[in-house]
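Quick start: what a row looks like.
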Amino acid sequence: MSHAFHDLSVVQPQWVTFAQSSLLLESGKTFGTLTVQYETYGTLNEDRSNAILLVHAFSGDAHAAGYHDKPGNNPGWWFEMVGPGKAFDTNQFFIISSNCLGGCMGTTGPSSKNSETDKPFGMEFPVITIKDLVNTQRLLVEYLGISKLFAVAGGSMGGMQVLDWAVSHPHMVHKAIVLASTGRLSAQGLAFNAVGRNAIYSDPHWKNGDYYGGVYPRNGLSIARMIGHITYLSDESMALKFGRKLQEREAYGYDFDDRFQVESYLNYQGDKFVERFDANSYIYLSKAMDYFDLASYPGGIEGALGRTTCAFLLLSYSSDWLFPTYQSKELVYPMMKIGKNVSFAELSSPYGHDSFLLEHQRQGILISSFLQAPHREDQE
């Protein structure tokens, strides 16, 4: 069946609130009242078998596709991938995208009000893990009346969530799409997260997370974002975009002002990030990524992946030095060894870790083909 290509129009965010103690955290603590923001695209079919859950990366949100308020305004972060005739075809699938637990885009997080104190949680928010994010999404999926997802898909931190979905809830996942991700952070990945958090801690306005209603720790969060943004790019993409170019009509000046275009760009990215993201969410979500480790299961990575019954598609990108291709292969090889249904490709791309957000056409073909391919699940 062929479909005409039309973009989704205006979409509306939705919210659902779950009662106290609906969520048991991996730490053993129970969570209080929990609100989740989400969006949906397409139509759920009669037997509720066509649902696909999209899980966002570190600083993402529920707005994956369509526009907010009016056509052309604020397109979703995967706008080119989700819609009629696109890789995640809303003529065929019912797409769900939610803001993750611990975030700051509508789902309960450190900046949310603690009903017990009537103040924002701050650092009284409980420590969370990738599994906790996934279990929050499971509450949403079940609230929508869906017992099994046709697919779960995501990149980077989203890919970690996809892996946990497949391992922790194998009976609920038919297909899993993991882009630019890993089964556990390397020492380098842990180090980058630690530097970002320490940039926030060192800001005098952070005040141990109790800055709400006062001066925001802008400088610390901005520096954390600049560090992170460098890891999302690549040497090739930065060379092509900036090289050693000076800002327009600037000379060296022989002072300490920002003269190079790349300096101005990073400052812009840091300033823009501060306007939309919460410093405490940065701390909590980066720590959740640190804790994620499929090798911690009994039997290691093979033991974890042995629990799965879904078909997998893993994509890596040649210039991604944050989650390089070898980390995807550390998942693919054990999957092959234990006989799992797995497809893998490395795409040559200059865009670094951000490739999964930018390589729409090529990865779209692979994803669309994977979604259409038959898969008979393991009978266990």
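That is the whole record. Residues 195 and 224 are 7 Å apart (CA to CA). The chain has a mean pLDDT of 93.
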